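Reviewers of the previous submission asked for a worked example of the structure-prediction workflow described in the proposal, so we include one complete record here. The input consisted solely of the amino acid sequence. No template or homolog information was supplied to the procedure at any stage.
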Amino acid sequence: MRDLKKVAATQKTKVKRLNRNVRYPSSRNWKQLISRCTRGAMLIACAGLVIVGVVLLIDLVVNSEHFQVQSITVQGNYRLSDQDVIDLSDIRQGVRTFDLDLESIGEKIAENDWIRSARIMRKLPQGIIVDITEREVCYIIKLEYLYYVDRDGEIFKVLRDGDDLDYPLVTGLDRQQLLDHIDVSQQRLRQIAAMLSDLQSRELFNVASVAQIDINPQEGFVLYSDPFGVPIYVGNQHFSEKIDLLEHIYVDIEKRLPVLQYIDLNVPDKVIVK
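From that input alone, the workflow returned the following structure tokens.
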């Protein structure tokens, strides 16, 4: 027969053990939680005050008279004057430097025919730098009107009264051909620009020796000498090598230009003169 007293004692022992394993919340845990929350709130408040202070400081600096434009420096200009570029920028002294949209100002300046690109920079506290790249005329092309073409073979400006005409004239390409065959036409314009750039560095037969260049569908490029307008057939490629051959005998040929009908450089390693 089971001993009821022993059973009861055993059950009491198990209950005591279970009670020891159970953890009850204490008042100390609540205090720690409140303390942590308080510290967190204080940190957030301090961070907020710092952010507000920084924003107010930035606003104070940006709007300070110390950052108003007092000087505008223009660099990279040769054809246009400093004042021309400043007028194009529409930047006025006294405006706050941080109110300027530098990218938009650069795009506005680059709308001028003579300017390829413009970069605007702040020179704190009171300065603005306008750095421009101007176009350099390489030759004139005759379409419906006369246009300047730059060193990259880009048509960029229609000629007006008073513009300089002392550049080689390119003919043989009309406006409709340019629009209908734009890739081929642009390649030809770049070829002419490269040819003239090569001639610019030469001493005997150079840019000053060329009055006109004709784009001929059958013959390729035809140069016309200055003076006397003697046709010089150079074809569509290997211009530098052909001009090298011409320069070797150009001292003698130049004396005979008044009576020459043409010069043909299309036969390999030869200069044919008639």
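The first strand starts at residue 71 and ends at 75. We consider this example representative of the routine output the project will generate in years two and three.
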